[in-house]
Amino acid sequence: MSTDSGVIHAHLPKFGVFYSDELSDNLKALGINDAFGGNADFKGMLADKNAASPFISQVLHETTITVTEEGTRAAAVTAEVFYGAAPIEEEHYVYLDRPFLYMIINTKTNTPLFIGTVENLPDKIN
User: Could you give the CA distance from residue 36 to residue 80 in angstroms, rounded to a whole number?
Assistant: First the structure.
């Protein structure tokens, strides 16, 4: 990079960072309390509207970033662990046994939020 007063040589080391946390206490501190107990109302997710509503027992979050000479890769995932969820009534199986593309899309705006590929698959998928 050049400036009026000379040249700047910047060096960035290769690095990788992984972060993992359980966020239930953080979310409760922000005022999200009903989702974690008997006041939770997730019945809209159930086929049987008379069944007891499940509630969130954990919120797990993980992020990772890797910077190398080839570029930067980053990913994040947050998962809610529900307690008391009703079983699924029908089972369907999909075997992704060759490379594929996947997307997470906001269905209200049709905006892609995350796009990725899986290219290296195990020899056998159970």
Answer: 10
